[in-house]
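Need residues for this backbone.
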């Protein structure tokens, strides 16, 4: 009969989420922890980027002669647009070639750090 549910025998519980015999759990524990690390690290970098801009906002405003409105645009919509046009292509690259994204992350972060240190000295 269409729409009939499969019923367990009286007194037996149905274990729908129990793994089948001989199958592996997905994702494995190491890959799940690796994915968690990557997500937390990416979140940290995003947070660090925003905090760094906030700390340097007055210096950027003074050095470039920006008004409050222009600085607000840099901190808000401009950074979102940058994330949009950089984040989506990098995500597509990550699907195709993770090594390119890792190279960008390791090359971009030291470049930002050196710029901050140069300005601080």
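Answer:
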């Amino acid at each position: 009969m269409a729409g009939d549910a499969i019923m367990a025998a009286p007194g037996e519980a149905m274990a729908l989420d129990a793994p089948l015999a001989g199958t592996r759990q997905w994702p494995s524990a190491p890959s799940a922890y690796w994915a968690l690390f990557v997500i937390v690290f990416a979140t940290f970098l995003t947070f660090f980027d925003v905090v760094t801009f906030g700390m340097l906002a007055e210096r950027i405003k003074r050095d470039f002669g920006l008004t409050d409105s222009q600085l607000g645009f840099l901190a808000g919509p401009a950074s979102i647009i940058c994330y949009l046009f950089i984040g989506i292509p990098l995500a597509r690259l990550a699907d195709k070639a993770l090594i390119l994204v890792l190279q960008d992350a390791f090359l971009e972060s030291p470049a930002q750090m050196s710029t901050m240190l140069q300005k601080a000295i």
